[in-house]
Amino acid sequence: MRLIISALLFVLLQGCVASIVSDVANAPMKVVSKTVDVLTTSQSESDEKRGRELRKREEALGKLGRQRAKTRKRCADGDKDACKKAADLSDQIEREQDRAR
Q1: What's the pLDDT score for residue 67?
Q2: Cα distance from N-terminal residue to C-terminal residue, the chain
Q3: Other residues' Cβ atoms within 10 Å of the Cβ of residue 23
Q4: How far apart are CA 90 and CA 68, in angstroms?
Q5: In contact, 94 and 86? CB cutoff 8 Å
Q6: pLDDT, tens digit, for every residue of 29-87?
Q7: C-alpha to C-alpha distances, 82 to 17, 56, 64, 65, 95, nearest whole angstrom
Q8: How far apart are CA 7 and CA 4, in angstroms?
Q9: Alpha-carbon distance 24 to 60, whole Å?
């Protein structure tokens, strides 16, 4: 009876032992490949990052443009401080556009 149980356990545990040995042997390769993947940036990731930066810059320019339009309207109504702020916003927009080039 012991012989049958031992033989049965031996047959059943071969898969487990082989799996463990395989996992241990492949672990260093998995670690290295994961490290390389983390440390490098793919072209698509780089393109996505650039696209996000461009959208943020365009949003900022749009916001500055709307602020400048409001202050120019107040300037046209006679508000001296608004005239100065509109000029400052124009300079800021120009700097942002130059930075994008």
Answers
A1: 94
A2: 83
A3: 10
A4: 7
A5: no
A6: 777 777 877 777 788 888 899 999 999 999 999 999 999 999 999 999 988 899 999 99
A7: 78, 26, 14, 14, 20
A8: 5
A9: 52
pLDDT band per the 50, 70, 90 thresholds, residue 101? low
Question: What integer pLDDT is reported at residue 87 of this predicted model?
Answer: 92
Quickly tell me which residue has 């049965």 as its tokens: 8
Tokens at residue 21, please? 């040995």
SS (H, E, C) the chain: CHHHHHHHHHHHHHHHHHHHHHHHHHHHHHHHHHHHHHHCCCHHHHHHHHHHHHHHHHHHHHHHHHHHHHHHHHHHCCCHHHHHHHHHHHHHHHHHHHHHC
